[in-house]
Amino acid sequence: MVTLIVTYVAAWTAIIAYAAWTSYGAWKMEQHSTGRKLKSAREMQPATVVESAA
Amino acid sequence: MTSKFFDGVGFRPTTSCGVVAACGVISSMLIFVVAPTETTMGDVQRILYLHVAVAWCGLACAMLMGFSAAMYLTRRRLEWDAWSLAAGEVGWLCATLTLVSGSAWAHEAWGTWWTWDPRLTSTLILWLIYAGIVVLRGSIEDPHRRARLSSVLTLVGVADVPLVIMATRWFRGIHPVAPDMDTRMRLVLLASVICFTVLVAYLIIQRRFHLALTDRETQVRVESWCQRNRRSH
């Protein structure tokens, strides 16, 4: 029973570690891209205001 | 490498956690609760449900890798190479788990952790091929050269898949061919294989999505660097 549990836990630890690594990587990349979009939107805002005022 | 397949798709970490947790719970229930205890080997025989499932997934990943490599060599599109990389990584994980679980089973059944049985040896060769491809990918910078070389190596490596499948029939060894099991055991084995297939398919798609996002990010950085350079000149 010990062999079974050790093998099973080791297998699932490896699977969860891989899933977490790819999941965290994808999430981080999305955060980068969202942050960039927000930044560019903020940079665009003053120009839009000036344009509409003119 | 950016794929239109993932355009407009948002990543949800909760989906990832949900899929992995659901497969983990279903698999554990099947193996520890539903499956009956085998009379000769006892509880250790339950390793079989994990071992067969990950072995099947490892071979399926190798075939997907081979298909993606062939598609890259004919179309020369890096998208196919990214699929090959995703399948290769997950396949390597499955091949490792096959060897580890098989070794644990062998220790209880045969009294040894390892023996040079044809099935075991051909699986070890498959694992080495996976490892070789992953190492090769890490050592080449040019994306097309990397894709070309790893695709060729993948196609050579895929030739090992029929050998792994047929090793117990073509050569004399001690690995069981198709052991007798009662209906409940067969059903649990089938359900376990389906459960792991779903999990592995999800992991490949998730890794492919990760690669697509990484590539998109790199492209944006290169473009902004070029714009900055143009402005400064």
Description:
The complex is a heterodimer of chains A (54) and B (233). The model of chain A has no long low-confidence stretch (mean pLDDT 77). Chain A is mainly alpha-helical and 54 residues long. Chain A is built from 1 helix and no strands. With 233 residues, chain B is mainly α. Chain B is 78% helix and 0% strand. Chain B is built from 7 helices and no strands. The two termini of chain B are 30 Å apart. The relative contact order of chain B is 0.16. Chains A and B meet through helix 1 of A and helix 1, helix 2, helix 3 and helix 7 of B.
* Shape label of chain B: globular
Structural class of chain A: mainly alpha
Alpha-carbon Rg of chain B, integer: 21 Å
Question: How much of the polypeptide of chain B forms β-strand, as a percent range?
Answer: under 5%
Query: Approximately what portion of the residues of chain A adopt beta-strand conformation?
Result: under 5%
Overall number of strands of chain B: 0
Content-based structural category of chain B: mainly alpha
- Overall spatial form of chain A: rod-shaped
Low-confidence stretches of chain A: none
Summed up, the helix count of chain B is: 7
Largest sheet entry of chain B = none
What's the quaternary structure here?
A: heterodimer
Cα end-to-end separation of chain B: 30 Å
Largest sheet of chain A: none
What average pLDDT do the residues of chain B reach? Answer: 87
Task: Give the uncertain stretches of chain B in residue-range form.
Answer: none
- How many H/I helical runs of chain A? 1
